[in-house]
Amino acid sequence: MRLTACAAFLVAGCAKPFQHGEDVDAGSPSFSTEIHASPKLTSIESAETDGLGRPVRVACVTCHGVRDAGAGFPENAAVLKDFHAGLSVAHGALSCKACHVDRHGGPPMLRLATGEELATSDAIRLCAQCHGPKYQDYLHGSHGGMNGYWDLGRGPRLRNHCVDCHDPHVPKYQPSRPVLPPKDRFVTPAPVGSHHG
Amino acid sequence: MDKAKRRTLKVLGSTLGAAAFAYAIEPLRAWASDMSLGELLQKHYRELTPDEMRAVLARLEADAEAKYGREVTIEDIRPTPGVELGYALNLSVCIGCRKCAEACHVENNHDRTTNNSYIRVLEMEQGSFDLEKGTTTYDHAVPSPGKYYLPVQCQQCDNAPCVKVCPVQATWKESDGIVVVDYNWCIGCRYCEAACPYHARRFNWSKPEIPAEEINPNQSYLSNRVRPQGVVEKCTFCLHRTRKGLLPACLEACPTGARVFGNLLDPNSEIRWVLAHKRVYVLKEELGTRPRFFYYFDN
Ligand code: SF4
Ligand code: SF4
Asked: For chain B: N or C, fewer Cβ within 10 A?
């Protein structure tokens, strides 16, 4: 059976959005989707670099596992002097404690709005509590990118973690130069002022 | 040899016995030195028996090694029953970085000197949906304020004008929705290029130049093998990857996750979720081309 696409859905959505062939039952997937375990979740860049010029990363627990800062967390990043000095934070009006558990000694933990504590590797749940619609998009493969197989019956998939693309302290995606400038004949810039400029 | 002749010869070849034909064209062969007899006599993709196909692939692999100095594997990968491939792109998150176009360039063995890619990313004024007004030559930090970015590649139309105009049926739609070209049957008339409303087809004006070490050796007959000079080519949704269940190269390269790919027939697929939950658009809907490529904005 081959019906044409419902014209209405193209502008406003309709009950049966897509009808090209018969639906199939893809069964339950034999392979799984993994989320990238970003090193950013459990370590921080130091000033040292390795042989390839990349910054050496230091696990958070190296300091936070043993050190007792005593005074508790600061209200904002500006007062940090000895450690994490120069950390820029541009994430709404959030204070450190909005996301980080205010405790020293033991592995650093995150905190949900409910008070529930969370390992830093589970940060997606923390992001999701404010960014619900984005999280829904992410869960349905329409935000965040992936690698591997579209067909989980034939192979696994690796998803990006929020922090792979967004610095949690400055989450706005930073502008950058585009790659591969086109050189084909369609794209010669038209003379200024011409109709096709 | 000029293309009209080549076509006439192919038509002739199918009516004469192969041996008689080979004898008859022997003088022509002397000056058509860049084309092997096998290539000249090759049948249409869809008429090749499995044995003939194996021979053709072996010949093409040997050719590729001779011309480009790289050992390659050229497969003939067929559509999977129960699969119709579809693509959707979230214009709210695309930043116009052209990483998709670059990934296409590398994956599909495009000519290095022209930066060819099956994807053009248009920089558009916010509020406009007229693709003829977009610019592709932008070279400043992206995303730029007041703009949005519209990547355009083959829309794998169900009612494809490019297929209808081909005088020799060198291009057709396969059962999984992909519109393909038999590069060895294409006569290079470029009717399809003119007929495509999305500027999705490319003509090989010269022999593609690619350094041996940059050649992607995982190739297929209908997709990313290096195309000959003088034929038309187009995006195949990376069928050499996607028919094996893998994601297309442009999707993997996209840093924003703007791209969604999958089986339109599987009601639990991501692409179906997008079609059901987002306000989806197709380009130039009024032309009735019925694309398999959908665009949407976040609500
Ligand atoms: S987008 Fe162009 S090349 Fe692709 S199927 Fe449609 S008409 Fe053909
Ligand atoms: S790679 Fe993704 S974000 Fe970049 S231009 Fe292509 S679709 Fe847009």
From this structure: C
